[in-house]
Amino acid sequence: MSNEPIGKLIAYLQRQNQKQLSKELTPYGLGSGGQHSFLKLILNRPGITQDRMTDEMKFDKATTARSVKHLEQLGFIERRPDPNDRRSSLLYPTAKALEFAPVFHSILDEFNRKLTANLTEAETETLVELLHKITRNTADAPDHPVRGKPDPS
Fold it and tell me: How far is CA 71 from the centre of its chain?
């Protein structure tokens, strides 16, 4: 087994991912802060609440609130009152977001193609499965390292 820290590799990949996506998306106002992830979710799930997005994306509430505000200021999303909960708003893509969606998805798809360019289709599927397994492990992990086990970073 390799001594290469998996957490370090994932962190490096995340930094490179954000750097490249920022470069591609900055002309559209989506350069940083992961706003593209929020926009993608709203495009795929119109009418989602901010709280639901926070839960699903595993961001803190403040990050979600900032990203939603930014997307709203850019004209990509709009809030509508939740008929089932007056304290909550439902988030919908605007016409601007729907018009941008094909360009947006092509940028994300092209980036994924670049990431997996040296992998076979089977390797890509295996990688995705393994990353999902790791994600499930971390979702259930305590917020502090377990004694006797090495820090993954």
Answer: 14
H-only helix segments in 26-151: 35-44, 50-57, 61-73, 95-115, 121-139
Tokens in use for 9? 């590799």
Place 59 in a pLDDT band, splitting at 50, 70 and 90: confident
More confident residue, 11 or 2: 11
Pair 137, 145: CB distance under 8 Å: no
Spatial distance between the Cα atoms of 41 and 97, rounded to a whole number of angstroms: 12
List of domains in the chain: 15-139 (1.10.10.10)
What is the Cα 5 distance to its own chain's centre?
23
Give 146 or 114, the one with higher predicted confidence. Answer: 114
Token representation of residue 138 = 């971390």
Q: Which amino acid is at 41?
A: L
* 33 pLDDT more than 80: no
Q: What is the total residue count of the chain?
A: 153
Q: Which residue type, as a one-letter code, is found at position 29? A: G
Span 22-49, average pLDDT? 90
d(CA 143, CA 65): 23
